[in-house]
Amino acid sequence: MTSGITDDEALRAKYMHRFRQHDTDGDGRVTAEDFDARAVRLTRALRVPDDAPRARDLRAGARHMWEGLVALADGGAAGEGGRAGEDASAGDGTTAGAGIIGAEGASAAEGASAGYGVSAGDAGDAGDAGPAGEGRSAGEGALTEAAFVAALARARAEGGLADLVGPSVAAHLALIDADGDGTVSLGEFTAGQVAMGQSAADAAEAFAAMDTDGDGALSTAEWHAAVLDFYTTPAPPTPGNLVLGHRP
Ligand SMILES: [Ca+2]
Ligand SMILES: [Ca+2]
């Protein structure tokens, strides 16, 4: 180790940035509901109906990433293990599992719709799960920051990032592609980024960096490359930093 910021530390800072973005209610743990909430925030900001295929695809992409992260955090070295919230194998002391909080440990009631800037009516999709631990079959439990960061690091180490983020990236692009031409214009991009809290100026900077072939539009491949760049490139500035709003 040398002094200063190592590559690992720089990547950890990026993953922690993502954790804070995903922890929509700010309670220090990320849940399936947090992932749903981000998807719902974007679709509603863009006035896409909740039951539209594009909205469903975005939620499915978010769920895919959530379940992948849980599996990565939960699996330990063997790649298998009890689901978050099951205590059957408690006591084996795997570090990867230490940050997973069982559903019964999360007080779901607190701040149900408070942190993500959507009107009170949003409780329908994300906030109606009821008391923690009640009949949730998919993605139950929660990830602490440490578990979330460890899961992303493991995905990177194992080459699993593309699969983890792929469906979400594709659905995100399809959602904001308002004119349906298969690419994202600057106007389409800016609308989506502003909906997620970025400034228009930041969006323009990100767009320019992401449009690597310079044709004035973002393809799925360009977007996907930028997101992978975010999770794998320690040094700023990068297109991935810009699109995901990380400015160390
Ligand atoms: Ca378009
Ligand atoms: Ca392009």
UniProtKB/TrEMBL annotation:
Name used for this protein in its record: EF-hand domain-containing protein
Residue span(s) of domain EF-hand: 10-45, 198-233
Biological classification of the source: Bacteria, Bacillati, Actinomycetota, Actinomycetes, Kitasatosporales
Pfam families: EF-hand_5
Species whose genome carries this gene: Streptomyces albiaxialis
